[in-house]
Specification:
Elements (H helix, E strand, L loop, with lengths): L4 E4 L18 H12 L7 E3 L6 H4 L5 H12 L21 H21 L4 E4 L20 H11 L5 E5 L6 H6 L6 E8 L23 E6 L5 H19 L3 E5 L17 H18 L4 E4 L10 H12 L12 H11 L27 H13 L8
Parallel strand pairs: 1-2, 1-3, 3-8, 4-5, 4-7, 5-6, 7-8
Helix pairs in contact: 1-9, 1-10, 4-5, 7-8, 7-11, 8-9
Family: Belongs to the histone deacetylase family.
Pfam families: Hist_deacetyl (PF00850)
Keywords: Acetoin catabolism
């Protein structure tokens, strides 16, 4: 076992279940952990279960009336108060909702604690990344915002500079809103353009509140953006901002819903591009944050073909035990997939692509929609960090 990295895991997180037919199928968590085990990654990383977050911790981000509403709906789902975003639309109430949401949050908060205290260099909670939850309401399948809570714990412990990087296909609106006026936190989100996707926020002009000008960075990419263009956008914005902000901790969110198979969005990344982004985040943590890295899951609704593989790659990267993309998927895991879903699992840890991208320094193409999006972001926020767009 190694103290270099921790995987925060409790089987209880699989009770985060909105019911039959809901896209957020908890089988994606089960299949991910079983793949981690089948690949032997649990021998290279400390697997640790943390306690559920208590009200004192949840209150670092969420309002008391909201917490009371979630707790009530958790015991009586038919009496959920829709004013708090629970019980209607995309976040229906279910029995035990408070307990399992607090458990997921507890894994992220404990991971942040461990990283800050130097107990481990990297911590992963792929059940987390529930970035849409607001201080006063649930939203977008998210009840408690574990990412924001983890950052709030880091600040409580004395961190002065934290970068949150969100690579989910949806804008990381809940985290951005929580720290809108906090100069200690820089939120960066790459996502599908708000014109075409929930939650309709994340425009490049959203650059932080009066208390934190430049504290929010948004790269809004056109539907259809694929591997090379997406990676070009990521590298055209993130490294320079990290160097300018000098974070003490890097918190990243790795929603798998940028994939071309995802049923809820319109970007067209391969698993291999997602893996390249994970590797970059790992490198940036070492280069800019003294190796302090908290990595979270997020969205992802191709629950067999995509989510388990990319999050297994995330765990492998954090554990410094990378899995070769061409490696076969263990047959024992494919049998588990069939037993749980009656679907055939993928056969390799790759989509068969080799992502390549041009650096921003290779030239701006004014006719390219992705380059236009990147330039809009750089123009909006770079001067606020003393950088040239």
């Amino acid at each position: 076992m190694s103290a270099e990295a921790r995987l925060m895991w409790d089987e209880g997180v699989t009770r985060y279940d909105f019911g039959p037919g809901h896209p957020m199928d908890p089988v994606r968590l089960t299949l991910t952990m079983r793949l981690v085990e089948a690949l032997g990654l649990d021998k290279h990383i400390d697997v640790v279960a943390a306690l559920a977050a208590g009200d004192g911790t949840l209150g670092l981000v969420h309002r008391p009336d909201y917490l009371a509403s979630v707790r009530h709906a958790s015991g009586r789902p038919t009496e959920a108060d829709e004013r708090f975003g629970i019980g209607a639309g995309d976040t229906p109430a279910f029995a035990g909702m408070h307990e399992v949401s607090a458990l997921i949050a507890g894994q992220s908060v404990a991971g942040a604690d461990d990283v800050w205290r130097g107990v481990t260099g990297h911590a992963v909670n792929f059940s987390g990344g529930l970035h849409h939850a607001m201080p006063d309401r649930a939203s977008g399948f998210c009840v408690y915002n574990d990412a924001a809570l983890a950052i709030a714990r880091l600040l409580e412990r004395g961190a002065e500079r934290v970068v949150y990087l969100d690579t989910d296909v949806h804008h990381g609106d809940g985290v951005q809103d929580t720290f809108w006026n906090d100069p200690r936190v820089l939120t960066i989100s790459l996502h599908e353009h708000p014109r075409t996707l929930f939650p309709g926020t994340g425009w490049p002009e959203e650059t932080g509140g009066r208390g934190a000008p430049g504290g929010a960075v948004n790269v809004a990419l056109p539907a259809g953006t694929s591997d090379g263009a997406w990676l070009r956008a990521l590298h055209a914005v993130v490294p320079e901002l990290l160097a300018a902000f000098r974070p003490q901790v890097l918190v990243t969110q790795h929603g798998a819903d940028t994939h071309f198979e995802d049923p809820l969005a319109h970007l067209t990344l391969s698993l291999d591009a997602q893996r390249a982004a994970v590797e970059s985040c790992h490198s940036w943590a070492h280069e800019h944050a003294e190796g302090r890295w908290l990595a979270l899951g997020g969205g992802g609704y191709a629950v067999v073909d995509v989510v388990p593989r990319i999050w297994a790659h995330l765990v492998a990267t954090a554990a410094h035990a990378p899995v070769e993309p061409q490696a076969p998927v263990p047959e024992t895991w494919r049998q588990t997939v069939y037993a749980l879903t009656r679907q055939q699992g993928p056969r390799r840890m790759t989509d068969g692509r080799v992502p390549r991208w041009q650096s921003w320094q290779d030239g701006y193409d004014p006719a390219n929609a992705v380059d236009q999006a990147v330039l809009a972001t750089r123009r909006a926020v770079y001067p606020l960090h003393g950088l040239l767009p």
